[in-house]
Amino acid sequence: MQLLLEGARQLGLDLTDEHRWAFQVYYEELVAWNARFNLTAITEYEQVQVRHFLDSLSCVRALVGTEYLLPAVPGQAGFRLARPLTCIDVGTGAGFPGLPLKIAFPRLRLTLLEATGKKVKFLEHIVERLGLEDVTVIKGRAEELGQMRNHRESYELVLARAVAELPTLTEYLLPLCRLGGLCIAQKGVGAQAEAASAQRALAVLGGRLRRIIPVELTGLAETRHLVVMEKIARTPEKYPRRPGVPAKRPL
Ligand code: SAH
């Protein structure tokens, strides 16, 4: 687990024995369930540590310098959440990036949203197995949740990795984000171009591009990017449109 520990340290996170236990169990359950359910293409030990766990934890970079995080004290403690934070991970799959963040930040009030039933089953299992509190697993689509009163504009932090291109993804994420909150989309090399192509959608949905943060991860050659967007105005009621429409006709 050296790659994960070293990489986490570089992100300002000190993983304790308890954290290590959780990541080890998460890895074993992921691989065991993957044999039956095809949850992820990545199963090799080091690849999971870096491409799933560490990559998920790297979202913390977008929170550094915000009111959400207490500063790390070198040699003493890593970053901690300043207070419980309501967060939703849209299209979380086998739990990325939401669950590794929940392991590292126990005060996170996390909702995991996933459309596929077999992935939802795994999520329910792993949340129980890890004994995580304040995690809600929902089977559903972002287009539906975004129109529900108890979810719409409710989350301070909205996350997604590898779900859709930004012009579509913004219509999934922004309606769920509370005014003043942040949306973080994890992207690869095409982040700049995608962000440019989503400017119109962002403006329509009440969002603004805050910054794009390049992230280098221990054990990973390619550069990753966090596209950080803020919610600056209410989202018009007609968004998100019906399931399938944001992908078929992006704003
Ligand atoms: N975020 C995970 C999974 C990426 S695969 C990771 O990075 O590993 C994309 C996932 O998003 C799939 O599991 C798919 O079922 C889900 N998904 C796609 N569109 C969705 C939507 N509109 N609402 C909810 N989930 C969606």
What would you note in describing this structure?
By secondary structure, the chain is α/β, with parallel strands linked by helices. It has a single domain, classed as 3-Layer(aba) Sandwich (Rossmann fold), CATH 3.40.50.150. 37% of the residues lie in helices and 23% in strands. The protein is built from ten helices and nine strands. The strands form two sheets. The chain has a seven-stranded mixed beta sheet with strand order 5-4-3-6-7-9-8, with helices on both faces. Strands 1-2 form a two-stranded antiparallel ribbon. The longest helix is centred in the N-terminal third of the chain and has 21 residues, at 17-37. It is globular and about 45 Å long. It starts with a helix and ends with a helix. The model has no long low-confidence stretch (mean pLDDT 96). The structure holds S-adenosyl-L-homocysteine (SAH). S-adenosyl-L-homocysteine binds next to strand 4 and helix 6.
